[in-house]
Design brief:
four-stranded mixed β-sheet, alpha+beta, 466 residues
Length: 466
């Protein structure tokens, strides 16, 4: 059976060879410049070759390598435009596709996990994979009752490969840092590693998906496919037709981008309140823009892949909403006290509350106005402000602390913002915060903050979203 490259030494060798390859290409680029090629042109070629090899290796290995690539792909908007172009296509490939298992391997896996009569469950089964992800691939089929279904099959050896890859990638965190300016990759890798066991357990995934499907049953804005059948390393759910968000990003109209962005923000906050779960794999490959039931009905957001969730029985912590509200109201001392109480400022560190407020305000700008126009230019501006070692924002940020209990919430929020910037969506973020973020609404109404009247979409300097 052909499956994941399972031998740790083989997978480690592929990953460990990446720094050597990058060094070799740097030498090649120096030779090209000496030969008369311009530094800009050679640099672009170098970036393209680097992106092609890095994400080719991540995709071939699937497992943790590909999972990290997908996690990073939503942050390509933060790259300087001179770098973003060469990486964008390679990153997008990881959101929905990877080298598939051959049909013979798929049949053997189904026979082993369901039984030799596995075909009796289906009226038909398409051997061509509809999607390939980090730990499994999806095939379209027709269930025995006539329903169109998606059959998710875990790769043989996926667990071993995930742990091996993420251990090795943790050692290469500094190499991967340039793909997400202003963000430390190592904690992301460590958190992904902690979630491996849950993602490999399709019973847990089915339980989470059932909770979401029930919470959004007949919802006008969000649709979650029902679970049809679940077994060890095989999960069957209803098929979801729609336009992948990656295609909306590349080819969608502004109306489609705005609708997708609004619903994505709504799902981020309403989903946790309804289910006590936080969908923690927010890359574009896991979302669809689903046509309405008729021409008069607006499109809905289709949500897939519930293998990675954060369990928050009480919903998002109300302290997040209260602190955000205080920040918008300019209450620097209270914000500082709240952050210190929650562990964002360590007892041994003393900061200027007004400086902390100045550090926070540009980040939460989307919540300060009735409608905000997300863009790659705005995200690059924030990334540059936080990543430049010479800037006061960078120096202050390094003295702040991210408590472990907030790590996944932080990552999911950043990922969602990354997708909104890729979409170039105009989003009424404050409406979603008022409706779904505990603590943001004070005494049932807004308290302080910017006036509603006269505020329009906020456009940031820079080129329009592509």
């Amino acid at each position: 059976m052909t499956d994941l490259p399972r031998k740790a030494v083989t997978r480690t060798a592929k990953l460990a060879a990446l720094p050597l390859s990058f060094a070799g290409r740097a030498t090649w680029s120096l030779g090209r410049r000496i030969g008369g090629r311009s530094a800009e042109l050679v640099g672009s070629e170098l970036q393209q070759r680097t992106a092609d090899q890095l994400f080719s290796v991540l995709g071939q290995l699937k497992g943790g390598a590909m999972k990290l690539g997908q996690a990073l792909s939503v942050f390509e908007s933060a790259l300087p435009e001179s770098m973003a172009g060469p990486y964008r296509a390679a990153l997008t490939k990881l959101q929905e596709a990877a080298p598939p298992m051959p049909a013979a391997s798929v049949h053997a896996a189904l026979a082993e996990r369901i039984g030799p009569d596995w075909r009796d469950l289906f009226e038909s089964f398409d051997d061509r994979p509809a999607a390939a992800a980090s730990i499994g691939q999806v095939h379209r089929a027709v269930w025995r009752d006539g329903r169109d279904v998606a059959v998710k099959i875990q790769y043989p050896g996926a667990g071993e490969a995930l742990l091996s890859d993420l251990t090795q990638l943790g050692r290469l965190a500094r190499l991967l840092g340039p793909f997400v300016p202003g963000m430390d990759i190592k904690p992301v890798v460590e958190e992904l590693r902690e979630r491996v066991a849950e993602e490999l357990d399709y019973a847990l995934e089915a339980e989470a998906q059932r909770a979401y499907a029930e919470a959004y049953r007949d919802d006008p804005d969000v649709v979650v496919p029902a679970v049809v059948w679940q077994g060890d390393e095989v999960l069957v759910t209803e098929w979801l037709t729609g336009e992948p968000l990656s295609r909306v990003i590349s080819d969608g109209t502004q109306e489609e981008r705005d609708r997708a962005g609004q619903l994505l923000a709504r799902f981020l906050f309403s989903g946790t309140a309804r289910t006590g779960l936080l969908h923690a794999d927010t890359h574009p490959g896991n979302f669809r823009l689903v046509p309405g039931e008729d021409e008069e009905s607006p499109a809905r957001l289709g949500v897939l892949d519930f293998g990675a969730v954060n369990r928050l029985p009480g919903g998002l912590p109300p302290v997040i909403g209260r602190t955000l509200r205080m920040t918008l109201d300019g209450r620097a001392d209270e914000v500082y006290e709240r952050l210190a109480a929650e562990g964002f400022v360590k007892p041994s560190v003393e900061l200027d509350p007004d400086a902390v407020l100045d550090w926070l305000l540009p980040i939460i700008e989307p919540a300060a106005v009735p409608e905000f126009a997300f863009s790659r230019a705005w995200l690059r501006e924030q990334a540059a402000r936080l990543a430049d070692p010479r800037s006061p924002a960078h120096q202050l940020g390094r003295r702040l602390n991210l408590p472990p209990s907030y790590l996944m919430i932080h990552r999911v929020t950043l990922s969602t913002i990354g997708v909104l910037c890729q979409l170039g969506a105009r989003v009424r973020m404050r409406d979603e915060l008022l409706a779904g973020l505990p603590g943001f609404r004070v005494d049932g109404a807004e308290s302080g903050g910017p006036e509603e009247a006269g505020d329009g979409p906020v456009e940031r300097a820079g080129p329009p979203a592509q």
